[in-house]
Recover the amino acids of this structure.
């Protein structure tokens, strides 16, 4: 199936308020899904016979922010965070890219982690991918069975791949900066 | 999905008092690198295992946001250090997809040969060490001799034996000459002899079979659900090889088979790797006789590619071009695109997700490391086996901690 067909099938099922958009012009075309709906959309993507996207190839999160005030005016994006799901179907041999966009902080209050439903019950491997996204980007995957840091130590502060991250001055007596 | 720390033994389990906990790693000869497993044991039987990773976390993805596309290749090298060039090829494959560069035919062939040499490189070490962990020392030494020859070939091409940093955006660092071609030819000619010898040592060896057959069985459904790729998925009967499914470089030109097995156990993974080596040698043999002539780098006029070194030192245009590409406030145009590109690295699908921005640095470069995915599989397939099988399964999954933790 082409990305247009996948999009059409999703819109028929969930309606335009849950499947919020498509970008066909990009090199890797993507479908945008409302953050709250990703759980049920993921179920459908995997379970539906025609889509059959049974493998989650990659899950990555990106933080869009320009910290430099001078450059911020030219920055082409609104500050936001997104999670991208790269899916592949072993049976149907097609790929799909699903994207979820949301605010950098929940309710725009610094320190409140944004919330996205987990997909770890749909694709088993999402368990570790989501833990890494939580560790690096500070995204709270609601319903994840064990959302703890995976690469950094448990008592690490901050989310290192966020653009406004500042390296700690010291960690347990080890000088950082 | 079972097996997370939260799902370790329930506190009211009646036989809990018989269980004991063993901390395996981070420093242990059989983990080869820094992995840590917390095993719950019932006698010698593994009841549960919880992997802890991150001991080698060095922030590669953050570095990618501070180094340009050519500089980051030195970091990518250090991910899967058993096959450094395969990582480089994968990284620049992704960058070239982002920038929309089509390689020259000579470069495609050259990279294909190097990628297959790296597959040999990786499988040789993996088959050798997984036998070593089970007590078979000879096969390991036989295979390491072959690895040494590949080091020589790679050194001749790039000037470095290990962390080569050989690829560049739109090409490679230097072209190769006929002497190199002859080296590769003589390597492929003698390779099968050693390969046969190791087959004789291991494949029908009673001890080796007893230690690997039926151990760590990964079913096809599990392999798909947990996104396994590469030899591990193929040993479980998943027919997936990016070289065939989504051909890149010069792979469409060659005749080779995708090696699969139904077993899904350590022995099947060993057999798949052994047979893949033969396929790789066949690809190299086909490619080395047919390397096209012509330039190895994309035309420097595109403004993206570094000019050849003689041009930098002897002409003003070359020097200008060199600085245009390298200087932080110059650079070239990078499209506002987000791409995911993957190659079939020896270990599985090695992919990069790159977000392009105005500068020649990636705005975000996420790696999809095969080891990361395969280590998440480990707790599922070790359940119920003996403590000594932990080593066999770890070996057959080929976990590289540097790639795992990045």
């Amino acid at each position: 199936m082409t990305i247009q067909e996948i999009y059409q099938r999703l819109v028929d099922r969930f309606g335009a308020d849950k499947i919020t958009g498509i970008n066909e012009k990009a090199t890797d075309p993507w479908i945008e899904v409302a953050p709250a709906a990703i759980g049920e959309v993921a179920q459908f993507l995997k379970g539906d016979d025609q889509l059959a996207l049974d493998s989650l190839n990659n899950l990555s999160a990106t933080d869009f922010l320009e910290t430099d005030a001078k450059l911020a005016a030219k920055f082409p994006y609104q500050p936001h965070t997104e999670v991208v799901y790269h899916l592949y179907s072993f049976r149907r041999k097609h790929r799909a890219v699903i994207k979820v966009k949301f605010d950098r902080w929940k309710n725009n209050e610094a320190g409140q982690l944004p919330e996205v439903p987990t997909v770890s019950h749909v694709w088993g491997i999402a368990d570790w991918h989501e833990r890494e996204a939580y560790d690096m980007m500070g995204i709270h995957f609601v319903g994840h069975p064990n959302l703890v840091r995976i690469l950094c130590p448990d008592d690490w502060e901050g989310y290192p791949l966020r653009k406004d991250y500042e390296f700690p001055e010291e960690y347990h007596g080890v000088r950082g900066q | 999905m079972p097996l997370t720390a939260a799902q370790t033994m329930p506190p009211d389990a009646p036989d809990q008092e018989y269980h004991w906990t063993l901390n395996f790693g981070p420093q242990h000869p059989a983990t080869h690198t820094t992995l840590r497993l917390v095993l719950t044991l019932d006698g010698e039987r593994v009841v549960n295992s919880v992997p802890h990773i991150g001991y080698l976390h060095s922030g590669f993805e953050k570095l990618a946001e501070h180094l340009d596309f050519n500089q980051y290749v030195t970091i990518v090298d250090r991910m899967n250090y058993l096959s450094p060039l395969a990582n480089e090829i994968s990284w620049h494959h992704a960058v070239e997809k982002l920038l929309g560069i089509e390689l020259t035919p000579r470069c495609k062939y050259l990279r294909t040969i190097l990628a297959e040499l790296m597959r040999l490189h990786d499988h040789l070490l993996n088959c050798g060490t997984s036998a070593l962990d089970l007590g078979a020392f000879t096969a390991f030494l036989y295979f390491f001799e072959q690895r040494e020859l590949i080091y020589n070939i790679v050194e001749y091409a790039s000037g470095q034996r290990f962390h080569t940093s050989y690829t560049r955006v739109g090409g490679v660092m230097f072209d190769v000459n006929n002497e190199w071609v002859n080296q590769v030819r003589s390597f492929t000619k003698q390779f099968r002899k050693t390969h046969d010898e190791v087959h004789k040592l291991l494949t029908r060896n009673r001890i080796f079979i007893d230690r690997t057959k039926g151990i760590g069985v990964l079913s096809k459904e599990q392999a798909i659900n947990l996104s396994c790729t590469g030899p591990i998925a193929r040993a479980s009967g998943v027919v997936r090889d990016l070289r065939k499914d989504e051909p890149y470089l010069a792979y469409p030109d060659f005749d080779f088979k995708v090696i699969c097995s139904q077993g899904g156990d350590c022995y099947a993974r060993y057999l798949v790797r052994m047979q893949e080596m033969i396929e790789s040698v066949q690809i190299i043999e086909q490619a080395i006789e047919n390397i096209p002539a012509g330039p190895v780098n994309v035309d420097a006029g595109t403004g993206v590619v570094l000019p050849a070194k003689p041009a930098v030192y002897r002409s003003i245009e070359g020097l200008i071009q060199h600085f245009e590409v390298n200087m932080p406030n110059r650079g070239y145009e990078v499209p506002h695109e987000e791409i995911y590109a993957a190659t079939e690295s020896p270990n599985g699908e090695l992919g990069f997700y790159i977000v392009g921005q105005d500068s020649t640095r990636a705005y975000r470069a996420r790696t999809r490391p095969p080891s990361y995915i395969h280590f998440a599989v480990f707790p599922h397939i070790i359940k119920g086996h003996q403590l000594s099988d932990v080593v066999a399964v770890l070996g057959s999954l080929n976990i590289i901690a540097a790639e795992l933790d990045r």
Observations:
- The domain at 3-160 of chain A is CATH 3.30.460.80 (Beta Polymerase; domain 2).
- Helices of chain A lie at 3-14, 38-47, 69-72, 126-137.
- The radius of gyration of chain A is 18 Å.
